[in-house]
Automatic annotation (TrEMBL):
The keyword Transferase does not apply. This is 3'(2'),5'-bisphosphate nucleotidase. Its EC number is 3.1.3.7. Keywords: Hydrolase, Magnesium, Metal-binding. One of its GO terms (molecular function) is metal ion binding. It catalyses: adenosine 3',5'-bisphosphate + H2O = AMP + phosphate; 3'-phosphoadenylyl sulfate + H2O = adenosine 5'-phosphosulfate + phosphate; adenosine 2',5'-bisphosphate + H2O = AMP + phosphate. GO terms for biological process: inositol phosphate metabolic process; phosphatidylinositol phosphate biosynthetic process; sulfate assimilation; tRNA decay. Mg(2+) binds at residues 70, 135, 137-138, 296. It comes from Triangularia setosa. Pfam families: Inositol_P (PF00459). Converts adenosine 3'-phosphate 5'-phosphosulfate (PAPS) to adenosine 5'-phosphosulfate (APS) and 3'(2')-phosphoadenosine 5'-phosphate (PAP) to AMP.
Amino acid sequence: MTSLYSKELEIAQLAVQRASILTKRVFHEKTKGTVSKDDASPVTIGDFGAQALIISALKHNFPHDEVVAEEEAAELRSNSALRDQIWELVRTTQLDDVAAEGLLGGAIKDAESMLDIIDKGNSKGGRVGRIWTIDPIDGTKGFLRGGQYAVCLALLEDGEVKVGTIGCPNLPVDDSAPLTADIGANATDEEGRGVLFSAVIGQGATSRPLKTGALAEGKSISMKPITEMSNASFCESVEAGHSNQSESARIAQKLGITKPSVRMDSQAKYGSIARGAGDIYLRLPTSKTYQEKIWDHAAGDLIVREAGGQVTDTKGNRLDFGVGRTLATNSGVIAAPKAVHSQVLSVVQEVLGVK
Ligand SMILES: Nc1ncnc2c1ncn2[C@@H]1O[C@H](COP(=O)(O)O)[C@@H](O)[C@H]1OP(=O)(O)O
Ligand SMILES: [Mg+2]
Ligand SMILES: [Mg+2]
Ligand SMILES: [Mg+2]
């Protein structure tokens, strides 16, 4: 393995795999330690634990890189019961392959170190240097209802996404399985679920089964060419507060799309269109003030583009990951195969009245 970013890719995939094991354990626990954040969104012991495990692996391998991660440990420093619950999970979650676990640096020393590690995700981001961005559980609401969620990790270099990995424990492994709406009944440990999407800039995108030890072999994935808009399928958020679902319905109708949207939580949407299970992902702003977070889009943006797609905001600009922790200069997301992206964008702009 001598290709560019091969070490980063291997560590990212293994780190996401290990964190995914932790999230699945939490799903089966009776109490998920759910607390409400300042913005009223939920966070669980799974979010904190997964973030600790991923940052620990990154700091072991790339000690000088910065990290922009979603969660912070402040609440855990004053809530020792919650801290202990997370520590118990983190302490006892390993990959079941000794060599792979060794690559991630093994266990974290103690509960205090775990809190410090969680807080290493506090970089301001920006356009200079190597910055990893982590969403330890993307779609926490989906996670809680047994629907889709994703463990997301990307490497930015000078503001550009170079490596992206998304673990989706509840998506089918089969790349050609049709997209199904996220009704919250997808959580199962049966064979056939759990997929890891990855991409490296200039090297294409892959999917592989999400394992509990060494990495499974990957397959190249690509977006499906749309021959008839009437047969296209588009996906969007489950949450009406995250994306305007009445505008998306009007856009779909104007494009000639006849199928209803497939609603699913998290960056599972990016992975699903990248492998051709769906075609288009629309995320239409619901407020003028909400700024999308870089950890909600970085990995998906690269995976879709490396699979033959184009990703822009509603103004037609590429997502700019170099402005800080948020996509402050962008509004919404339009992801589609390259060949039809401009057609989709012009209908989006017509319906939204964007110049
Ligand atoms: N008002 C909002 N508009 C758009 N996205 C939001 C909004 N509030 C939260 N989000 C984020 O959208 C992501 C979920 O994406 P999706 O809606 O596509 O499933 C979550 O990361 C969620 O943040 P959080 O992690 O804090 O819940
Ligand atoms: Mg969250
Ligand atoms: Mg998220
Ligand atoms: Mg999250």
